[in-house]
Amino acid sequence: MRQSKVLLFLLSVFLILFAVWFVFPSKGVQIGDLKLRFPSYEAYLADLQDSTAEVDVDSVLLAVQASYEMIAGSTDTLRYYYDYITSNPNRVCLPDDDYTFFDSLFVDMAVAVGSGRTVRILHYGDSQLEMDRISAVLRQDLQERFGGSGPGMVPMIQRIPTVSLSQSASGSLTRYAMVGDSLTKKAAHKRYGPLTQFTDVSGNGTFTFTRTKNRYSQELVKSISKVSVLLGQNSAGFEMTLKCDTLPVQNTVLDSAKAGVSMVSWTLPCDVERGTISFSGKAEIYGIMLDGKDGGVTVDNVALRGCAGFIFSSINPQVMKESFDKTDTRLIIMQFGGNAMPGIASRKAISSYVRKIVMQFDYFKKVAPQARLMFIGPADMCKSVDGNLMTWPLLPQLNDSLKVNCLKNGVAYWDTFNVMGGPGSMKKWVSHNPPLAGPDHIHFTHKGALEIGNALAWSFLLYHDFYKLRQELSDEAVGRYLRDLRDSLNPRPAVHDTLTMTEL
User: Fold this and answer.
1) What CA–CA distance (Å, rounded) separates 495 from 501?
2) Are residues 393 and 497 in the same domain?
3) Domain containing 375 — which CATH number?
4) What are the tens digits of pLDDT across the range 282-308?
């Protein structure tokens, strides 16, 4: 037999085995009393993951806090900032390591303090954000620094209660939403607004809010002294009346019909415990904002259960642009990836998902050019692979590809996966005392969400601290120092097995 035929035979066998590797059931095939098993592709990928034995959650969390505190007390502060923004795993990764990325946002925040202006941060995400988890912690930490209060923008009809507000609605109201179960009503148009849902008022209706008593609520969220309504498609004579505690009734009537987006605000003389907005007429209510009268910053929580993050470009762009302009939205955060994992079994699937996410970036840049964009990558998730609980195969690759393509497209990236401790860390978060994640090995507990929210806030605030230092030293001097430091160190970028958009 010729060598070429032997080689062809061996190659054919290899290709057959390789194909079986991908398609053979991970649980094996039962034939009578005999079970046939074949090493699965998922098991192979899992074997490539780092061992979980070395993940110490307490050490991971302390390292996040220590990296922030270390800079504050450093004798060579600029060197520590340089090390942080270029290599610290807890950092917010910035396009081209441009440490000025958030500067315009910091300027807006500084101007807003005490001015009555509220700078909005819109935090989109999947079920990890439900009940205002993570967002509430980020909101509290930022409001302590930049001023502001209240829970931010909420939908008129809230299907899943939050820890930050008690609310109810009644009357001639119909809720339409882009995301939900089979019973969720879909609108005949795409005017869903920034919360990806709206409430249609046709006649009379009421919205009531009450200061929350939930034990997980953050302190500043309980202070409400400014109420605003974001609405569109209102009829002539559409009337809104606000009654809070024992304060005088506030009444607003829109004289003319308007197809575009409007915003009506009432500033109250003090914090209120309870309030009711009565509506009469016809309009679409895109959101109700509960803030502080002195201005500052807020974080609007938009939890979209089951969403993978690529629905936004389907919303009417004019409605979104007008909404972002009127609400003074300056930062849009997208936190997705977890819901995509069950459908990702190949690099091609990663490419397809990342491409759809990049399309959302392009959309937001058009409807909110004044806003910075930040993406929060998926947390570690565990599943059973050949009887062993470990990180979902291809999750590390998805995380890396998202990071690379976010930075390439001018979007900041916060790497939840590696902040948690990397592959297999979710097991440790679940077994931690107290548990930081639930038994599904996917969702954080309230305690875990607190840790993640604080870590995110600290990472973001570090750039603000660096911004303030640069104002004192002059950007020119700082830039010259960092360029000289970079040239002296001549760092080499790490090589990652990632997919860039040129490979998609």
Assistant:
1) 16
2) yes
3) 3.40.50.1110
4) 999 999 999 999 999 999 999 999 999
